[in-house]
Specification:
This protein has 465 residues and is α+β, with helices and mostly antiparallel strands. It is built from 17 helices and nine strands. The strands form two sheets. It has a six-stranded mixed β-sheet with strand order 5-4-8-7-6-9.
C-alpha cells in the first residue's frame, strides 16, 4: 500500500505568492484563511490539505499538478549530484539523509544548490581568468542569452507573425484594453505603492491587469502588450526557448523575458506597417515614436528585428550603457563583429552623449579590420516617476553598415565613402591600434615597452610583432 505522506509546499507557496505580487495578508484574504496560517504553510509548519490545494487551484486558476508536483525527487537528484563533488569526499552522506533533506527541507536544498552553483562558477572564472581577461567577469547566463538572440539575428518568424495577427485583432477590438476586456480581464491604473512598487501585476484571482499610473502613455501600452505576450503568445515563446538546450534555468528565464518584450514590440509596432513606415520616414526614430505611440528605446529595439525573409530592412546593432560604461543590453540584427563584446571603446559617441542629454549624435565608425559603420546615439531615461523618484540615465546607440547609411535621415547629404570616420575598437583587449590615446589596457598578445628613455602620448608603446 502506498504511504500517505503529508504535503509540505512552503517554498513553492512562497514563490507563487511573490510571483503574483501578493502579501501574506492579500493571499489570506483570497483564500479565506488567516495571515498567520499562510505564514505557517510557507514555513512548512503546516501541511497543505486537499481542500487548501483545491482553493489555491481555483482561486489563482492553476493546474493542481503545477502546484503539488513532487519537487522532492528533483531536489534529491540535484543535491546528490552536488554532493558527489570531491570537496565533500571525506564526509559520510547516506542516501537516506539526502532524501530526507530534499523532501523535508526544500528551502535548505535550494540554498545548497545555489551556493554550489556560485562556487562552481567562481572556480571556473578563476581558472579562465588569465586566458579570458576582463570578459571572464561577465554574467554567463546573460552572455548565453545574448548569443542565442544574435544567432537568430534577433528575428523570430513564428513569434512575429502571430504577434502581427494579434495586433490586427486588437485594432479591430478598439485597442488592447477593450481586447482584454472581451477576454474577461479588466485593466486598472493604480499608484505604484498599491502595486507593491511594481510596474505591472496580474491579479489572477480577480482577473485584473494592474498598471502603475505613473507610467507615460508609451510605457503603459508596452506593459499591457507585454502581458498579452506572456498570455496569448506563451506557447510560441516557450516553443522557441525549448528548441535550444541551455546551461542554466536562468538563461531560459532571461530569454522568456526577452522574447516577451520582443512580442510586445511586435504587437505595438506590427512588422508590415512598421517596416513600411521606417522606409517612408527614412528611419527617423522620433517620427516613428509619434506614429506608433512608442518610446525612443522601444522603436530602436524594434528596428533591430526587421529581418523577415524577403522583407528585410536595414540591419542594426543596438546597445545600451549606463554612465559607468556597463552594458545592460545588446541586440544584434546584422551579425556585427562587436555584437558579443563590443561597446567598451570610449571613442564611440554612445559614451559621450551623457554630456548632451536628449540630443541625437550621428557618427561614422571604423574598426581595426577596416569595417565601416554608421551609428546614432542618444540618452534615454528610466526609473521612478514623480518628485524625489530615482531616475536612471542611460545611453542607447544603433549602428548599421556604412553602405546602408544613405537610407537613414541622420546621414542625409553625406557620401559614405567620403565620410570622416572615428577609429574605434571592439574592446581594448582585442584592439591592436598602437597609437590610441584612449586605451585602458594593452591588447592580448602584445609586449609593452618600458618608458625609461621615452614617454609616448599613448598610455602604452609596444614591441614590434
Amino acid at each position: 500500500m502506498a504511504e500517505n505522506r503529508p504535503l509540505y509546499l512552503g517554498p513553492r507557496l512562497r514563490r507563487l505568492r511573490r510571483e503574483l505580487g501578493l502579501t501574506q495578508q492579500a493571499m489570506a484574504d483570497d483564500l479565506d484563511i488567516s495571515p498567520s496560517y499562510v505564514a505557517l504553510l510557507e514555513r512548512n509548519q503546516r501541511p497543505v490539505t486537499a481542500d487548501m490545494l483545491l482553493r489555491l487551484a481555483r482561486t489563482y486558476r492553476l493546474d493542481i499538478a503545477e502546484i503539488a508536483g513532487d519537487e522532492g525527487e528533483d531536489y534529491q537528484r540535484r543535491v546528490s549530484a552536488v554532493l558527489r563533488d570531491p570537496i565533500f569526499a571525506d564526509i559520510d552522506l547516506p542516501a537516506l539523509e539526502v532524501a530526507d533533506l530534499a523532501t523535508s527541507f526544500p528551502g535548505i536544498s535550494e540554498a545548497l544548490l545555489r551556493l554550489h552553483q556560485a562556487y562552481t562558477r567562481e572556480a571556473q572564472a578563476l581558472a579562465e581568468q588569465r586566458a579570458a581577461g576582463p570578459m571572464a567577469d561577465e554574467n554567463e547566463p546573460v552572455r548565453e542569452a545574448q548569443r542565442f538572440l544574435a544567432a537568430n539575428r534577433n528575428y523570430f518568424h513564428a513569434l512575429d507573425m502571430r504577434a502581427e495577427e494579434l495586433a490586427g485583432e486588437i485594432e479591430k477590438a478598439g485597442g488592447a484594453v477593450d481586447w482584454l476586456g472581451a477576454k474577461g480581464v479588466r485593466v486598472r491604473f493604480l499608484p505604484p505603492d498599491v502595486l507593491l512598487d511594481s510596474l505591472r501585476r496580474f491579479d489572477r484571482h480577480n482577473q485584473q491587469l494592474l498598471i502603475a499610473d505613473t507610467l507615460d502613455h508609451a510605457s503603459r501600452a508596452f506593459q499591457i502588450a507585454t502581458h498579452i505576450a506572456h498570455t496569448a503568445l506563451r506557447t510560441e515563446i516557450k516553443q522557441t526557448i525549448r528548441a535550444e538546450a541551455f546551461s542554466s534555468r536562468t538563461t531560459a528565464t532571461l530569454l522568456l523575458r526577452a522574447l516577451a518584450g520582443y512580442a510586445a514590440a511586435a504587437i505595438v509596432m506590427p512588422y508590415g506597417r512598421f517596416a513600411r513606415a521606417a522606409d517612408q520616414r527614412r528611419y527617423d526614430i522620433d517620427a516613428l515614436c509619434a506614429l506608433f505611440g512608442a518610446s525612443f528605446e522601444q522603436v530602436a529595439h524594434r528596428l533591430t528585428t526587421l529581418q523577415r525573409p524577403g522583407e528585410e530592412r536595414v540591419g542594426f546593432f543596438f546597445i545600451r550603457v549606463d554612465e559607468a560604461g556597463n552594458v545592460s543590453k545588446r541586440l544584434d540584427g546584422a551579425g556585427f563583429p562587436f555584437a558579443a563584446h563590443g561597446g567598451g571603446c570610449p571613442l564611440w559617441s554612445v559614451h559621450q552623449v551623457f554630456r548632451h542629454p536628449g540630443e541625437i549624435m550621428p557618427q561614422w565608425l571604423e574598426l581595426p579590420g577596416g569595417e565601416r559603420f554608421f551609428s546614432i546615439a542618444r540618452t534615454v531615461t528610466g526609473g521612478a516617476v514623480g518628485y524625489g523618484g530615482a531616475r536612471v540615465l542611460r545611453a542607447v546607440a544603433l549602428a548599421c553598415a556604412a553602405e546602408q547609411a544613405e537610407r537613414l535621415v541622420y546621414a542625409a547629404g553625406v557620401e559614405p565613402a567620403k565620410a570622416p570616420t572615428t577609429p574605434i575598437g571592439v574592446t581594448c583587449r582585442l584592439c591592436q591600434r598602437a597609437e590610441c590615446t584612449a586605451r585602458s589596457v594593452p591588447p592580448i598578445g602584445r609586449d609593452v615597452l618600458a618608458d625609461d628613455y621615452r614617454r609616448a602620448a599613448q598610455p602604452y608603446t609596444f614591441a614590434e610583432s
